[in-house]
Amino acid sequence: MKITLLTGKIFKIEQAAGVPLKVVSPVRCRRLALRIDQKERQAVLNLPPSCSVGRALEFVKANRVWIEKHLSSMPLCRPFADGEEICLFGEKVKICHCQDLKSGVVAENGELKVSGGSEFLSRRVRDHIRREAAGRLLELSRQKAELIGCRVNRVLIKDTKSRWGSCSGLNNINYSWRISLAPMQVIDYLVAHEVSHLRHRDHSKAFWACVKTLCPEAEAGRRWLKQNGGLLYIYE
After folding, report:
1. HSE-up of 82 (CA within 13 Å, CB side)?
2. How far apart are the C-alpha atoms of 106 and 129, rounded to whole Å?
3. 218-228 vs 205-214: helix crossing angle, rounded to 10
4. Please, are residues 105 and 115 in contact by the beta-carbon 8 Å criterion?
5. Contacts of residue 224, Cβ cutoff 8 Å, sequence gap at least 6
6. Is the distance from CB of 20 to CB of 71 less than 8 angstroms?
7. Chain centroid to CA 67: how far?
8. What is the pLDDT of residue 70?
9. Is residue 38 a contact partner of residue 178, using CB atoms and an 8 Å limit?
10. Contacting residues for 71 by C-beta, under 8 A, at least 6 apart
């Protein structure tokens, strides 16, 4: 019965919000909070189970300008395109469509040469980036883990909606493939962050001290991700 009531409450709020909004109600949620889901291009409202529909809608109304400002400033999504220059693990590479190339994707001399029909180009670039991320982020994660006497079991590459990375109790680390498009300083910070969770499962002072040990420029990387992370979602 309680689940049914909560589901109905969430539906009413989403329908009456007047802005693209998804409502979630985590078990431990204690206060109303808003964030922007860059991938889904909508606001997300954290709703305490005990909060009323009216109070939630007043909260959304009070923050409507903030929501609309952030949604309108998000760049339009687009596929990877021939001739486009992208940042890949801190290095600029140019995408070149080479229809007669035998292999799928070849990286050489600052170019990413992509074979096949143009309709497959964007998907092949994305798949190539995911493969590169799997190997390079695993290597970097294991290097940093060794520095603090920990061990990474596996690295999985995903396309997560709200997290750039996460660390499980089984010592597996998940990363969004999109972080590969960020400056190397940012990638280094994210890896340091997730690897530090192998030792500290919280965000205590000890955790942040560990992050800084593994990445002295952590604060700059963290700040870049907070301010510019939405740019990594412009590709479909």
Report:
1. 12
2. 11
3. 100
4. yes
5. 182, 183, 185, 186
6. yes
7. 19
8. 87
9. no
10. 19, 20, 36, 41, 42, 43
| 174-205: burial string, b at 16+ Cβ within 10 Å, e else | bbbbbbbbbbeebbbbbbbbbbbbbebeeeee
| Crossing angle of the two packed helices 184-196 and 218-228, in degrees rounded to 10 | 110
Q: Which two tokens stand for residue 105?
A: 């994707």
The candidate with the shortest Cα–Cα distance to 98, out of 81, 113, 82, 110, is: 113
Q: Which two tokens stand for residue 115?
A: 């074979």
- Predicted pLDDT at 76: 80
Calpha distance 47→35 (Å, rounded): 12
User: Measuring CA to CA, which residue among 193, 147, 154 is closest to residue 172?
Assistant: 154
Q: How many helices (H) does the chain have, and how many strands (E)?
A: 7, 10
Average pLDDT value for residue range 126-131 = 97
Residue 2 scores a pLDDT above 80:
no
Contact criterion met (CB below 8 Å) for 122 and 136: no
Give the position of tokens 């909560």. Answer: 6
Supply the pTM of this predicted model. 0.79
Vertex 70 angle, CA 69 and 73, to 5°: 85
Is the dihedral angle over the CA atoms 125, 128, 130, 132 positive or is it negative? Answer: negative
Give pLDDT tens digits for 16-34: 999 999 999 887 888 999 9
